[in-house]
Amino acid sequence: MNLEAIHILALAPLIVVTLTAVAVMLAVSWRRHHFFNATLTVVGLNAALAATIYVRQEIPGSLAITDLLVMDQISLFGASAVLVATLGCATLLHAYLEGLQDNREEMYLMLLIGAAGALVLTGAQHMASFFVGLELMSVPLYGMIGYIVKDRRSLEASVKYLVLSATASAFLLFGMALIYAATGSMSFASLAGVEHSGLVAAGIAMILIAVAFKLSLVPFHLWTPDVYHGAPAPVGAFLATVSKIAVVVVLMRWWQAAELGADPVYTTLIAVLAAMSILGGNLLALMQNNLKRLLGYSSIAHFGFLLAALVAGNEFSQEAILIYLLTYMAATLSAFGVLTLMSSPYRGDDVQTLGDVRGLFWQRPFLAAVMTVSVLSLGGVPLTAGFIGKFYVIASSMRSELYWLVGVLVAGSAIGIYYYLRVMISMFLAVPGKRRLDAARDWGQRSGGVMTLALALFTLAVGLYPQPLIELLR
């Protein structure tokens, strides 16, 4: 392996995030200071994002860094989305942990390690980097989910995620072993043009099971509501955005490099998973009064939409996936941002139910406005970014004449609008004098509040005028 200057430049975002994690670790060991370590984390993530933008300008094409990693349009998009979402989670963590009289700094270290794993996933073109990136991202999540040790629900969620994630990793490794036994290679491209024997088919199926678990696809979704419910609100945001964006990006590259879309068996399998996830996620969300569980179930449906675009396999598919990921990320982060700014780990439970946000408009109008924009975008209502994402997915499916899947997409969207509107209506029901849990009163002094408001404005801007974003992604 001969690394030249251009390869080091392509690795710059990952190197910056890794060095930031080391710096935070050393800073914590030297002196505990919440604001300093949070600021160091944000500065490092911003530097990594700037490096990503610079790399895109200096290396416009595709570059194989090693046999394990590649830098191309998809990896640069994935790295940018991961870093922006991690930045959002870092600001929310600062707001969430501000009043905690306990060790807080390790959370930022785990956040950075998880982001580094996600960056490895976005550039993976080999089974080894796929597995290393997935585990590097997942292991810190076990600690992040159970970080509030005095909350039994948080610890329970951490153990559940640990056990089930380990099971998914076992499926992934076994699938990789079967493919290696049949082909003698672990490169994504080694599957292209190879006759799919029983071993290869079984290996691909096992890898798809592991990916379905990470994306909470039906019927591998049972962990999702409990983990979302028990995790601290900012960690739920990381789980719903960063971890899933990285897995979608690596799935998209594997799907394209291995030419799995050319086999009707795999396309039918993914289409069925997409349809079950869209209908299952939306129908289960109908029965929820817990906001975290509702967002968890809705994420199942949203990634069903993304699989529908992947199955379509036409010239619009990649663009549809990228746009949908961005619109989903912005809306989900802002929704979790509102829950975070109304929650505190040591002053009571996180905001959980629809009753907790009842009358929010009359007490915290800015928070209510942000949540309104978020749920409308998640529901795909016109003039929001979510509508643009869903329009692209439906158009892509129509182009490939997947009419039955289009029917599922439309039905799922209609069901989703109902429970999203329940959240919005609850906020506008007047309950004078009702106090909120540690809600942010001064947005000017809360970086998390500013970030959440900026995401809501982005959601509206893309919904009103999406052309600049579309051109950028092209």
List the helices and strands and how they pair.
Elements: H1 5-10, H2 12-30, H3 34-58, E1 63-64, E2 70-71, H4 73-97, H5 106-122, H6 127-145, H7 152-183, H8 198-214, H9 224-230, H10 233-240, H11 242-257, H12 264-286, H13 291-312, H14 317-341, H15 360-363, H16 365-378, H17 385-399, H18 403-427, H19 447-464, H20 467-473
Antiparallel strand pairs: 1-2
How would you concisely characterize the structure shown here?
73% of the residues lie in helices and 1% in strands.
Structure explained in plain terms:
The protein is an all-alpha fold and 474 residues long. It has a domain at 301-474. Helix content is 73%, strand content 1%. The chain is built from 20 helices and two strands. It has helices at residues 5-10, 12-30, 34-58, 73-97, 106-122, 127-145, 152-183, 198-214, 224-230, 233-240, 242-257, 264-286, 291-312, 317-341, 360-363, 365-378, 385-399, 403-427, 447-464, 467-473; strands at residues 63-64, 70-71. It has a two-stranded antiparallel sheet. Strand 1 and strand 2 form a beta hairpin. Helix 3 packs antiparallel against helix 4 (73-97). It is globular. Residues 436-445 have low confidence and may be disordered.
